[in-house]
Each structure stands twice: as C-alpha cells, then as structure tokens.
Amino acid sequence: CTLCPAGKYRSSLEMARCEDCPTGTYSTDGQTACQGCTVCPAGKTSNNGCAGGASVDNDCSTCQSNTYSEEGHTSTCTACDANARSQANSTSPFDCRCIAG
C-alpha cells in the first residue's frame, strides 16, 4: 500500500485511487479525508485542488496586485474594477483604491 501524495486523500484502503480535495485547500501526504485539508486564507488561492505541502505560505498562492480574495477558499482571485488598483495579497474589494484621473 502506498500513501496518497500531497494534495490528495483516500478515505479507506478499499478505494482504488486517491481523490483530489476541493479547490482552495491543500493537504500533506497520507491524508484520509478532505477534512484533513486546510483552506487557504484570504488574500491567497489554490488553483489545483489540494496543492501539496504543510504550510499556507508555501502552498497557497498570493493574489497578485490589482486582485483580491475575501474567503481564500477559491480557485481564482477577483480582479479590482478597471479604474482601481490594490496591493498583492489583498483580502477585500475595499483594498482596491481608485486611481487618479
């Protein structure tokens, strides 16, 4: 028997293959349920289900400038309005500030 790799889980040994955890989460090797996955925090995202690894900083991607993620449990960061800008790792649409002009 082999353990599931990071980013996957198997709830029982009878399962023939490992399953992906929901988008926006990640897990370490050998997880037996998605409850073992941890949601990426606001301002970060995971676009490939459980992106393997053990810490949020290494496994969840930071939202780029001019985008934000309120919940973190998402596969994409939301873009600011066309005339607004934000810092990387923004967590709210209120972080998007209108540009001059």
Unreliable sequence segments: 51-57
Structural class assignment:
mainly beta
Strand count, sense and barrel status of the largest sheet are: 2 strands, antiparallel
Strand order of the largest sheet: 1-2
Number of helices: 1
Ends: how far apart? 63 Å
Radius of gyration equals: 16 Å
- Number of β-strand runs: 10
Residue fraction in strands: 15-25%
Judging from the principal axes of the Cα atoms, what is the shape? rod-shaped
Q: Helices and strands, in N-to-C order? A: EEEEEHEEEEE
For the residues shown, what is the average pLDDT? Answer: 77
Query: How much helix, percentage-wise, in residues?
Result: under 10%
Domain count: 1
Task: Please give a structural write-up.
By secondary structure, the chain is mainly beta. The protein has one domain. The protein is 4% helix and 20% strand. It is built from 1 helix and 10 strands; from the N terminus they run βββββαβββββ. The protein has one helix at residues 56-59; strands spanning 8-9, 19-20, 25-26, 38-39, 44-45, 61-62, 67-68, 78-79, 84-85, 97-98. The strands form 5 sheets. A two-stranded antiparallel ribbon has the order 1-2. The protein is rod-shaped.
Please outline what is shown here:
This is TNFR-Cys domain-containing protein. The chain is mostly beta strands and 101 residues long.
What descriptors fit this protein?
101 residues; mainly beta; two-stranded antiparallel sheet; 10 strands; 20% strand; rod-shaped; Tyr-kin_ephrin_A/B_rcpt-like; TNFR-Cys domain-containing protein
